Fold this sequence. Notes:
The chain is an alpha/beta fold. It folds into five domains: 4-89 and 183-282, 3-Layer(aba) Sandwich (Rossmann fold), CATH 3.40.50.300; 94-178; 312-377 and 548-672, P-loop containing nucleotide triphosphate hydrolases (Rossmann fold); 380-542; 691-943, Lambda Exonuclease, Chain A, CATH 3.90.320. The chain has a six-stranded parallel sheet with strand order 3-2-6-7-1-8. Strands 9-16-15-10-14-11 form a six-stranded parallel sheet, with helices on both faces. Strands 19, 20, 21, 22, 23 and 24 form a six-stranded mixed sheet that branches. A hairpin with a 6-residue loop joins β23 (886-894) and β24 (901-906). α1 crosses α2 (42-55). The radius of gyration is 39 Å and the shape is elongated. The N and C termini lie far apart (82 Å).
Amino acid sequence: MKCVYTIPPDRRFIDALAEGLWQKSGSDPLKLADSLVLLPTRRACRQLRAAFLRLIEAKATLLPRMKPIGEIDDEELYFSFNETSLLDIPFAITPLRRQLLLTQLIKKKENNIPLDQAAHLAAALAKLLDQVQIEHCDFANLEKLVPDNLAEHWQQILKFLEILVAEWPTILAEEGCLDPADRRNRILEAQAEVWRTKPPNYPIIAAGSTGSMPATSTLLDVIAVIPGCAVILPGLDQELDEEAWQKIKETHPQYGMKQMLEKFKMQRADVKLWPVCEGKKISRRVRLLQEAMRPAEVTEAWRNLSPKDFPNAALSGLTRLELDHPQEEAQIIALLLRSALEVPGKTAALVTPDRLLAERVIVSLARWGIEANDTGGTSLATEPVGAFLLDILNAASPDATPIDHLSLLKHPLAACNLAPVECRARAREVEISLWRMQQVDHAKKTEISDWFDQIKFQLQPLTATWHKELPLCERLTAHIEIASEMATTDKETGAERLWTNEAGEAAALWLNDWQSAAHDFPLVRGEEYVRLFTGLMRLVTVRPNYGQHDRISILGPLEARLIQADLMVLGGLNEGVWPPEAEIDPWMSRPMKVKFGLPLPERRVGLSAHDFVQLASAPEAVLTRSKRSDNAPTVASRFLLQLETVLQALGYHDSKNDALAPQEPWQKWGRQVDQPQKIVPCSRPSPCPPISARPRQLSVTEIGVWRRNPYAIYAKHILHLHKLDAIEAVLSAADRGLIIHEALEMFLKSFPGELPADALQKLIKIGQSIFAAYKDWPQVDAFWWPRFKRVAAWFIEQERERRSAGITVLNTEASGHMDFKDGVFTLKGRADRIDKLADGSLAIIDYKTGVPPRAKEVLQGHEPQLPLLALIASKGGFKNIAPHQVTELAYWQLNGGALVARQQAITKDIPRLVLAAQTGLLELITAFAEATTPYEVMPKPQMRPRFDDYMHLARVAEWSSAGEAHD
């Protein structure tokens, strides 16, 4: 008789296992040590060890040996088997070495495939090799997989697989290794043979495995017949009717155990309850969940369900939350986990296959200082050391952008033989002086440029050979050496800073593994190396060793098997997540897998269903999902829909009543977490700097800003905050204005008197010389140049009219100034153009390639630029221009589009405008000479300036009554 037990889903599997083993030992603290317990994972072994400590209350006891059934290492092999024949089993090839070797094979057969894509296909091929070996299939049957009428694509893949299969065994033999799955099969089979021929004289308990792998199932079959040994199944459904049991398929949670019992030649009735579970009825919750998993062919039985079979008590402790979006789901899960900590000793766990949801929950918990025990870990690529290694590659590329260099130099690990803080300060200096084009002292700029050249020189071992084909190991070595150099500070070596803590150690081990695995890899170029390095790094997982919470866990379904916390939250219950979406195998179609004997992807659905039933059977379980993801509606998991259908059949659930609705308003609480009790807007900024700090000179264009928004003057001239040009900025309308201004200025200076007959051609030629500097900008040639030619034609026409009327150009880009209050304040100005009219008076013209101020704004004094320039001109403030009355103020709008150009001239009431501008300026000077006068933000909102670089700094949207954002 085979000794097979089961532990129901509503019992804590690990705790029940520990309790049963303790009872079997007669509570003898020495007898437990005679046993060997085989569990599915290392985590389950750690949990069983903790369960024993709780059970025996930390008394001195020798615990049984605990081993993962599928991860027997070499020490275990020598210790347990003691058979010389087993010593001949070669080691398993490392995953990275296998992937690189398979990548070489794929590139050898199809060289046009990009290296990173070949590596991706190699990973899929390695997975296929494992599946084939796990299921004991034979590649000799490949030729039977693809009939002649199947798509040519699969015919080609079949030929490709046949070539690889013919070569891969030879490669493995040369390596002296086996595939990991093959080696595990051999060890398990050898172990099974040893125990079959020489049964051990100590108890072996294999618990928690469903025997999904044939080699494991064979070993379990052997263990089950050894006297004193036992196999313990997790949650075998012994109450499902026989008709339904026979209809079970791959998607059912009991499928794996059904197959194993058939292999054992056992009936469900032959399986006994684990002794500590005897005499206790399976909870109605478990029966309800198992009923919800009934095979589709026999679901007509749901019509006969009665509330007597499943009273309301079956739903006690089981709730469901359907949230609007993933962030809300994460927020509420975090609240649920946090609430568990309010109860002394209570444990809680989130189980989800959705890593993005898990990461969101981790962030939400962090707001309360809770660092959950997350088994999923993080990708090395997202850790500081991983990002630093990638930044080096991006910066070393010949096509590196300023952003690439700044990302490297501002990284916390970058030091370049300086203190890290000094390195980042240098990086900011490089950014401002070299790429944001701010004015910096020439000597300082030279020093910064020289330092940046040294940085680029350090990257040369990669940059100089970027387009050459070099051995992979050589590129990797250069990469590591540069990383070490760049991370070296004035006190620590790069190695001391890079390869510390969990992430650094994981990176060091991975790089060492890569150097060993890539010794004979073909030559690669720099760009290929970057793509390969990036793709492989994303697969490296970093898990913290300590510092995580002992009562809050975040687990994947695999890690959560056999584990049960006081509160179980099952998150991400949407189709495609839980159960997972069926993977598309690039190497075998579904019909090919069926013919070949490989399991279909639906088996994963069955495993997910088993996990769902086991976890949802916890005394307190919360099922969550989000209704939308990535702005698209989601579909509830089939497990939820099946459960809902059963509840509807029982009359517990309809459009008005939700039997799984929580008693607490979790959704409301989740939304209130980020809602302040009261919103108190900040007050309007009104800084009052001391008189000594206030500006003593301004330009004519700033006087209007001074009137409309004094805070902008405060930010610019007192705080000395200046808008930085964007890095790698595209050309803007302002740049187009500068180009046109420069072209017109050069033309007028070249021909101040009579215009030549070919004036338009001369101006076009000048424009061509200026536009040549922008030839690499497509929009300049496509849009700006045609507009400039139209503006040039209009401009020459105006010039001929004005000069024929006796108007002469006195100066262009003329600078002037005027003192007020006996030199206490200086007004500065620059006129685009000053003309002398036929009557001897002056005209001041301002070119605008955008929209000029409206005449109404000038007449009302809101835009005093031109009147103030007229004031300076009337007082002789422009060099080499005698004081004269100004009788014309004009904006020339030079657009070049549908509206080519136009003049907006003011010729009336100019003396009044000049006097009003002067009076207004004196009032400002007098007012702000008082220490109590604040630099307010928009004293009169109706006078808001059209352009202001400091509106965000004033936080207008926070305190303005309308709450508007102002650009």
